[in-house]
Amino acid sequence: MPTKIEKDSVTGRETTGHEWDGLKELNTPLPKWWLYVFYLTIATSVLQFVLYPSFSYGPGYLHGVLGYTTRQEVDQDVAKIVAKRKADMDKIGTLSFAQIKADPKLLEVALVDGKQVFASNCQPCHGAGGGGNPGYPALAAGAWIWGGTLDAIQKTVTYGVRSDDPNARTSAMPAFGAGLLTQPQIQAVADYVWVTFYGNKADGRDVSEGAKVFNANCAVCHGVKGEGNKLMGAPRLASQVHLYGNTREAIMAQVMGPKMGVMPAWNTRLDPATIKAVTLYVHSLGGGE
Amino acid sequence: MAFRNEFFEKNAIFLLVGTLLTVAVGGIVEVVPVFTVETTVEKVQGMRPYSPLESRGRDIYVREGCYTCHSQQVRTLRDEVERYGHYSIAAESMYDHPFQWGSKRIGPDLARVGGKYSSDWQYAHLKNPQELVPESLMPRYAFLAETPLQTYDTVARMKTLRMVGVPYTDEQITSAESDLRTQSDPTADQTKLLARYPKAVTVPGNGTPTEMDALVAYLQMLGTLVNFADTNTERLRQ
Known about the structure:
The complex is a heterodimer. Among the domains of chain A are: 73-168 and 263-284, Cytochrome Bc1 Complex, Chain D, domain 2, CATH 1.10.760.10; 183-256, Cytochrome c-like domain (Cytochrome Bc1 Complex, Chain D, domain 2, Orthogonal Bundle). Chain A has 11 helices and 4 strands, in the order E-E-H-E-E-H-H-H-H-H-H-H-H-H-H. Chain A has helices at 32-51, 70-94, 97-101, 104-121, 123-126, 150-159, 183-197, 208-217, 219-222, 248-256, 272-283, and strands at 15-20, 23-26, 56-57, 60-61. In chain A, strands 1-2 form a two-stranded antiparallel ribbon. Chain A has a two-stranded antiparallel sheet with strand order 3-4. In chain A, strand 3 and strand 4 form a beta hairpin. The radius of gyration of chain A is 35 Å and the shape is elongated. Chain B has 12 helices and no strands. Helix content of chain B is 45%, strand content 0%. Chain B starts with a helix and ends with a helix. Chains A and B meet through strand 3, strand 4, helix 2 and helix 5 of A and helix 4 and helix 5 of B.
């Protein structure tokens, strides 16, 4: 029930004029400063409504007097950083690898950039520091499938391996399990590879039969001594670093129905200078030729 | 002081009407922009409805709650554009019901993940993320590779999507089941599939996809559809 506004005799303050069952409420207004700040926020919101993009209606939306968009802003931000890096990136893009390496400051820039690019693009497959993962070759071990020179790495990264790019590196190991070799021959060649190249004990196994099968079927690509062939992307078998693991089962599986590693082409995602930077970084990991 | 609280407090009808009017203003401000939402979708080349397999993969993505850890939105911030690529635009999620922009990034943004990795990697990573990324917090989804994809309702799902505005053609709907098989069978002729759904990525298999096959087809498509080469911020503006 509204009552008359009156002065409260105890506190000396005014009441609001409301009464509930005989209880009257003291009028405690918001502090003046708070109230004015509140009015100010309302005023600024109107201002923002006018200045910035705000409300969408029939044919479009209110663009605001300033014409501001976050998209333009990010374009400008990117343009700014590109301009800042331009001098260095242009040099990295145009100079030869030898010239870049001769300029310690430039090399430093390339390696820092390359490291960061590697972490967000390559690491999920090739592992931290290029340590490798099953099916994804180690890049720091010096056991190269396609080649560890700067030019070879640059080519691999640019076009990828068995990617959609027409210039991609590509090759295919035949599926010997699909009738090319008999089961005993496959067992024999797996024994031979496992013992002679992967360096395991023969344990009384006779690998001479396997050697014959190997020389007749596999040596064209992997080499008589298991040294591999970079032109074919056939990995070195005489090594301790293997793409698909060290077990005899892995060799068997590869001969029966081979896995063929795919690496995406990076020329669609990274510009040429950035690819050179990441190439230099990969080369510096410890395996570079 | 003609209009004091007292007036409304004493006249219930006026209180009701007054309340309604006040709430209506708020409602209009919220609802009107939604009616005109089409005008905020950029006109770009390349965006198309999802292929049946991709669309089912998207259902798995939603069901498994991938969005609780992954966003699909490259924001207009320099570091994001540098890391992930072109910022996301509204057109890219116009066939999403609901959109998968997400709000939390425990893992990386996935808006441009299509083609970044090989399909082999996607399978291996979904089965056991820690094998490839030892410090990964992502759960293992190996069971998806053992679960056959439920396909009997493919057409019904596409029709439902058409009802909410995805422009599937009659041809796309009648060929849905064969398209779904084709996209999960590399030995099949892909010409017609690719004519209906350009850039669709075929996943390994024999035509009876698992849930993981569908998910990988979806992931490999993400962010690859719109052709950004022939557009720019100025032209994207409405």
